[in-house]
Amino acid sequence: MVKKQRRAPAERPNEIVEAALELFVEKGFAATRLDDVAARAGLSKAAIYLYFEDKMALFQGVIRQAIGSNLLTVEALTRAHQGPVAELIPRILDFMASRVEDTPMPSIAKVVIAESRAFPDIGRFYLKEVIGRGIPIFEGLIARGVASGEFRPVDPMLTVRSLIGPMLLSIIWKTVFEPIGAEKLDARALARHHANLMLHALRPS
After folding, report:
1. Are residues 68 and 162 in the same domain?
2. 10 Å Cβ neighbour count for 198?
3. Could you tell me if 111 and 25 are in contact, meaning their C-beta atoms sit under 8 angstroms apart?
């Protein structure tokens, strides 16, 4: 394999994470070796250990880089929004759907699902850093809508899980079923449709 041209030292962590992401998606967590990551990144294995303690820490770095920035965007949208909650929910769902369509997020989620039983620390990290940060944002929005009278009284926790269910379906559909011939799913169209259904369901009687 031809090594990539080396970047400046400050860019090497990103270079390593990018190479690791490709390999984790191709091979899974268990089958990916740090030697392979080093070769893909055009670095020595020793260089990886300058930035990441072990393979688990590297996988956590992949999750942070690929998904953490998405959460920052959602958090920023939520903080900046001053109008009705009903106006914001479709925007957030559309953003989530765009990440499903245009980024490696679905492939990372698939690796987490596939490997968490054998490597529970993967699931625990994803639960804390992704789900544990994302769910409260939505729960806060639903609670805000209920408190203002914009939404009828509902359980925020159950409502949020109903709200994001189609995005999880999109991830599974695109990573499991489309590669074996299933019809293509338009995640953004599904997000728009589901947002419309949910907002009608949340309206006060």
Report:
1. yes
2. 19
3. yes
Contact criterion met (CB below 8 Å) for 103 and 177: no
SS3 track for the chain: CCCCCCCCHHHHHHHHHHHHHHHHHHHCCCCCCHHHHHHHHCCCHHHHHCCCCCHHHHHHHHHHHHHHHHHHHHHHHHHHCCCCHHHHHHHHHHHHHHHHHHCCHHHHHHHHHHHCCCCHHHHHHHHHHHHHHHHHHHHHHHHHHHHHCCCCCCCHHHHHHHHHHHHHHHHHHHHHHHHHCCCCCCHHHHHHHHHHHHHHHHCCC
The domain in which residue 103 lies consists of 63-202
What is the spatial distance between Cα 127 and Cα 125, in angstroms, rounded to a whole number?
A: 5
Do 13 and 112 fall within a single domain? no
User: Are both 76 and 46 inside the same structural domain?
Assistant: no
Question: CA 45 to CA 51: how far, in whole Å?
Answer: 11
The total of structural domains in the chain comes to 2
- List pLDDT tens digits, range 111-158: 999 999 999 999 999 999 999 999 999 999 999 999 999 999 999 999
Tell me the CATH number at 9: 1.10.10.60
Q: What is the pLDDT of residues 75-111, one digit of tens each?
A: 999 999 988 999 999 999 999 999 999 998 999 999 9
Evaluate whether residue 30 is within a structural domain.
yes
Which one, of 177, 179, 158, lies nearest residue 169 by Cα? Answer: 177
